[in-house]
Amino acid sequence: MYSKEVMDHFMNPRNVGEIPDADGVGVEGNPTCGDVMKLFIKVEDDRIVDAKFQTFGCGAAIAVSSMITEMIKGKPLEEAEAISKEQVAKQLGGLPPQKMHCSNLGADALKKAIEDYRKKAKA
Ligand code: FES
């Protein structure tokens, strides 16, 4: 029922952990199941140079978290911000319909992390 990309990112998640001196942190919870993702980003010259995550959630949420960190590393903030949950799911070779809500976590945590970075950068 899961694609091989989902299984790969679930079994070998990329970029797990935290960045203690992160420039932006985004936390997003999924109200339907209570799962939570925390995303850390490092930003240089308006580009995401590093990303790590901690996710307490289902296999699909872990695969989504892992994939989104891979997708955003090296990307300009504006491009990263435009990534939708559908794009993440597509990169993972699709998610079963009942697991599509799990892809919210990644895109929403990312938007929050970027917002947090912008707030801090202004301060
Ligand atoms: Fe909670 Fe997937 S069941 S994020």
Cofactors, ions and other ligands in the entry = FE2/S2 (inorganic) cluster
CATH class: Alpha Beta
Measured between the Cα atoms of the first and last residue, the distance is 47 Å
How many discrete structural domains?
A: 1
Mean residue pLDDT? 96
As an assembly, this protein is: single chain
Percentage of residues assigned to helices: 40-55%
Strand order of the biggest β-sheet? 1-2-3
Provide the succession of SSEs.
Answer: HEEEHHHH
Number of helices: 5
How would you explain this protein's 3D organization?
- It is a single chain.
- Helix content is 43%, strand content 20%.
- It has 123 residues and is α+β, with helices and mostly antiparallel strands.
- The protein has a single domain, classed as Sufe protein. Chain: A.
- The longest helix is centred in the last third of the chain and has 19 residues, at 104-122.
- It starts with a helix and ends with a helix.
- The mean pLDDT is 96.
Short structural summary:
The chain has helices at residues 4-11, 59-72, 77-81, 85-91, 104-122, and strands at residues 24-29, 36-44, 47-56. 43% of the residues lie in helices and 20% in strands. A three-stranded antiparallel beta sheet has the order 1-2-3.
